[in-house]
Model the fold of this input.
Amino acid sequence: MSRPIGESNFLHELKAVVAVELTMAEVSHSQNPPDLPVGEWLLDPIETERAQVGMRGILAAITELENGAPFRPATGRDQMRGRP
Done:
């Protein structure tokens, strides 16, 4: 199934933006010096990790759409089963 050109461009641009954000999150993850007390850390490493996991999921979804996978919004039943 071929995608409209505008949609392909949008997915390509979105993928690039998410990839940059993921790289920035990975770099910021190392911003907390190990000798600094936890209370003085600039970023919460758990929140940074959550953001990275989410961005990797978005990249995977974009890749699936680029490869021609049909878009199928998740239903409440799918979410209860642990399916995206």
User: Anything to note?
Assistant: The radius of gyration is 17 Å. Residues 13 and 24 are 17 Å apart (CA to CA). The first helix runs from residue 5 to 29.
